[in-house]
């Protein structure tokens, strides 16, 4: 039976649509090119007079560059150009600066210090790849080797070497804390009430995506004054924006061609090869290829980052988990790349698909002298899911419960309140457990077979409990030795039950024509009202209502009742959708900007293409 | 660097090129002869993406000195189908979803063709053995093995 049939069987009343494509054989639109050997990957675009670029890379985990002697290499046969850090016009970036997240912390070519093995300090462009390789081998770098740190918890100790000078505390700043906090209920009270405490540590090593096509790009000057760049990137416009920023070049001068990727799995979003190839084309006026060989792909290519999770559960004798505490470490390697996002995404996944009344987690994005980590297939989720499910088995063993029973007992039911103060909906773990047990021939009790994700929620499971809050782990405290433990601290303040905590408000739209009608995009909008019961010191008072009530959809649909039992129906029917004042779509008018179009941000002394947080 | 003339047939056509002494067949086919179907995946003989047939036997283009194909017959995936039609093996790969990113496919097809030319009715184990030098990171191999068996007229053979 296919999974679609399972869905129709188990959730027959949910969707009556007959799927036209899913579950049915269909030819890929690009597959004929694949079997004919005609699909053109970036390296399949042939250029006359193509030059080849290769990098001189650090053999050390952590070292200062005293000097670089490339005189011998420059005189070697076929060498056309030596590319130094000073040739990069705006030699500092962080990948997520394009969406305003994090500070610039990484150079395209390092000039003073390297923080991981394989970091480039110089590049050489030559007529053949072999000549470029030989010239790189002839470059003499005078290294001052520095002490390095390769373990996340070691990196957080006060005496640890500073890996990344932009983040001297060796961890990403999730202002105002040095970690992502999640607090729901009071785990200490939960542990006190529990019959058993089960604690364990789980680790996952870095994993290289290892696509068969290595990362690379070919750039060439076009006759229009632009530079064309053929690339195997997974993120064409990320790569374009990153190139524009690093080379301080308007993006209109860049013609990026991509979309045909010889395997990526997350490893081709880092946009490291495109700026190098375009820089080479700018400096030589010739087509330049910058292609990693297999060794670079494995050593320098950013893997899925290592993770370490410490999970502590408080469990009742009957298998109900009443408290769960996480301490998580994402190993970012030397630079941020996408690991800061892994921290928030991983936190968003806690405590797994289970209704647990008391949850606390501290998640760190830590810098070490390892290869910078980046995206890979569900990064931020895979490691913690592995940890949670291993831990569920351990908890089952500790209380003598069947592991499938333990999961069905604790699984989210539709309508439950998650630790993120959102309602669980469209839950299916109970059904997954039933089907998996059936397939594996695992005996499941009749009560568990009769369980459903659609029933079983209670007033308690729907309520937001009183929550213990703490202010521990402000940025810099750890480096100063004021923070002995990474674990969630005992709460010092209380957030009243039924409160959502910080109240997020949609930013008012800047132009009326950007106003999205919530109903048109399918959001049900609850009437504006106060979510929090009057004054609580930690809940900022709501600003006066903006004149745009239709922007509310990013808020939870309705404040859940604090104590009183809600109606029996599992679907959060919330308040009946009130008719919103209908904003008539404006009559189409010709586009008339009141300010002339400008690219990027104008700030004195910085690149116009710098976006996001400005470097200090 | 010294250049040597080398003559061979590429997909049935007489081809003559000047190659550098140390040049490998993969570079010469791609840059010299303009046949982009063999791919560079590792340059170390590990991944099999550059697999071509030399006199009917599978060889790794990246580890073959171009000068050694003098007078021999080289076949690549680029020359598999002559005209608009496809071979049974190519059709089986298409219909069996045996390619996702497609980067290993040209090498995979050459390894499979070498097997089927030699042994038209292979067992599943023989298919697995024949493609054991070709790495694929997308499919998990099962659809590829199934497609090769399907092309040999043994759809669903165990």
Automatic annotation (TrEMBL), chain A:
Gene3D superfamilies: Aldehyde oxidase/xanthine dehydrogenase, a/b hammerhead, Aldehyde oxidase/xanthine dehydrogenase, molybdopterin binding domain. Transmembrane segments: none annotated. It holds the Pfam family MoCoBD_1. Keywords: Molybdenum, Oxidoreductase. Residues 537-573 have a biased composition (Low complexity). Residues 446-616 are annotated as: Disordered. Residues 574-590 have a biased composition (Pro residues). Residues 471-480, 520-531 have a biased composition (Basic and acidic residues). Residues 36-147 form the Aldehyde oxidase/xanthine dehydrogenase a/b hammerhead domain. This is Molybdopterin-dependent oxidoreductase.
TrEMBL record, chain B:
It comes from the Bacteria. Pfam families: Fer2, Fer2_2. InterPro entries: 2Fe-2S-bd, 2Fe-2S-bd_dom_sf, 2Fe-2S_ferredoxin-like_sf, 2Fe-2S_ferredoxin-type, 2Fe2S_fd_BS, Beta-grasp_dom_sf, Diverse_Oxidoreductases. Keywords: 2Fe-2S, Iron, Iron-sulfur, Metal-binding, Oxidoreductase. Residues 4-80 form the 2Fe-2S ferredoxin-type domain. This is (2Fe-2S)-binding protein. It comes from Roseobacter sinensis.
